[in-house]
Amino acid sequence: MQTDKPFSQACENNKAPILEQLSGFFTQPGTILEIGTGTGQHAVHFASHLPHLTWQPSDHPQNDQLCMPWLDEARLPNINPPLPLDVITGDWAHLPAISGVFSANTAHIMAWEEVEAMFRGISNALPVNGIFCLYGPFSYGGRHTSPSNERFNRSLRAQAPHMGIRAIEDLRRLGESTGLVLERDVDLPANNRLLVWLLTRPSGQ
């Protein structure tokens, strides 16, 4: 691996189990929007193993070029250039037509207002019956799923009060208000989950 490429150990650890799940949900040709592409490790891994898909990386405008060393090295024909996307103020209309959305480890970093904006934006960008896969740690019934997740949540709160592991109950309500129904909740390694949402109606309808 080149030393000048950004690197996330978490991406390296979780890319295989996430891919196993995505391959069962994103079965038809189409374009998948990734929100919060980060280093680009997920984009390269998933696009290389799912050649029927076109992968559309995106990230906050301050971070959207971070993935370029990985994309430049991979030179995969089914990865588009990354797009800047601020989920609150960004123009979702400039995105290409998408058939699905994937996002990893973003909901606990974003402020809740950004999570709400992400769900609204996805609801308006996806076609009906489109799938949104959200990966990360979540809490259930007011409890964390492991002591390590509880410690992680405390560390997030200490870094910034707006961050923290999100409650599945809050996400369900948010999904219901934006036409996204939680179809699957998949247990993955390291106390993480993959939440699979199905769009039943665009936001506001």
Task: Explain what this protein looks like in three dimensions.
The chain has 205 residues and is of the alpha/beta class. The chain has one domain: Rossmann fold (3-Layer(aba) Sandwich). Helix content is 34%, strand content 23%. It is built from six helices and nine strands, in the order αβαβαββαββαβαββ. The protein has helices at residues 9-25, 41-49, 68-74, 112-125, 147-159, 168-177; strands at 30-35, 53-59, 83-84, 100-104, 131-136, 138-139, 166-167, 180-188, 192-199. The strands form two sheets. A seven-stranded mixed β-sheet has the order 3-2-1-4-5-9-8, with helices on both faces. A two-stranded parallel sheet has the order 6-7. α5 links the parallel β6 (138-139) and β7 (166-167). It is globular. The model has no long low-confidence stretch (mean pLDDT 96).
